[in-house]
Amino acid sequence: MDIRVSDDPSSAAAAWMARRLRDAVRRRGQATLAVSGGNTAPPMFDALQTHDVPWKQVTVWQVDERVAPDGHAERNAGQLDSLPATHRLMPVTSKDLRAAARRYGAGLPDRFDIVHLGLGDDGHTASWPPDDPVVDSDRPCEVIDEFNGFLRMTLTPRVVNAARSRVMLTLGSSKAEVVARWMLRDPALPVDRVRRSGTITFLDPAAAATLPTA
Predict the structure, then answer these.
(1) What is the DSSP letter of 1?
(2) How far, in whole angstroms, is CA 170 from its chain's centroid?
(3) Please, are residues 183 and 212 in contact by the beta-carbon 8 Å criterion?
(4) How far apart are CA 71 and CA 202, in angstroms?
(5) One pLDDT digit (tens) per residue for the chain, 214 residues
(6) Neighbours of 81 (CB within 10 A)
(7) Domain count of the chain?
(8) Taking the CA of residue 131 as centre, how many other CA atoms within 13 Å lie in the half-sphere pointing to its CB?
(9) What's the per-residue H, E or C state across 14-81?
(10) Which end of the chain has the smaller Cβ count within 10 Å, N or C?
């Protein structure tokens, strides 16, 4: 895994992603990006817009989403409004969520160019709760029972790990312990299911404070 620590990891992650998106468009004529929500995502999205990105050739999907009405403050979808790309939002207002998840999964690209991830204090990423069977699912998209107050829809490790690249952005001292446990391969953490090869992790000094040394 490539680990990069800086005082402004949001900008560093955005610069790296912009280069990869440009490269994908140059190579394949289009770029595919799946993004997570959370507090760290909006600053990275803002920084991404300061770079030269061929947005007309970029399509953005969601890694996960809370089941809530359109416009709800807890939805991740609102964070995507600033990205001038084509959006493919998770259908979390559908009456039949599991059928909607199957349809969303069937419409995914064969392989994402980039999947952006965050990290929870409990070691979850995407919407993979601790001890949940979603991490072993052979379907691309699943519905999760209530987790931190909401039903969720999420991409599964099958899709995340098939991506050409994964970007993990994690900030703050509250994440230091779980970052260290992840680096030490703690199998109790859902994030341990993320493939390390092809994953680049951007941390600030606080989140990296307890990283194990070589």
Answers:
(1) -
(2) 11
(3) yes
(4) 30
(5) 899 999 999 999 999 999 999 999 999 999 999 999 888 899 999 999 999 999 999 999 999 999 999 999 999 999 998 899 999 999 999 999 999 999 999 999 999 999 999 999 999 999 999 999 999 999 999 999 989 889 999 999 999 999 999 999 999 999 999 999 999 999 999 999 999 999 999 999 999 999 976 5
(6) 9
(7) 1
(8) 0
(9) HHHHHHHHHHHHHHHCCEEEEECCCCCHHHHHHHHCCCCCCHHHEEEEECEEECCCCCCCCCCHHHHH
(10) C
Residue 151 placed within a domain? yes
In a domain, 214, yes or no: no
**Is 16 among the domain residues?**
yes
CATH code of the domain in which 55 resides? 3.40.50.1360
Residue 213 lies in a domain: no
The domain in which residue 145 lies consists of 2-203
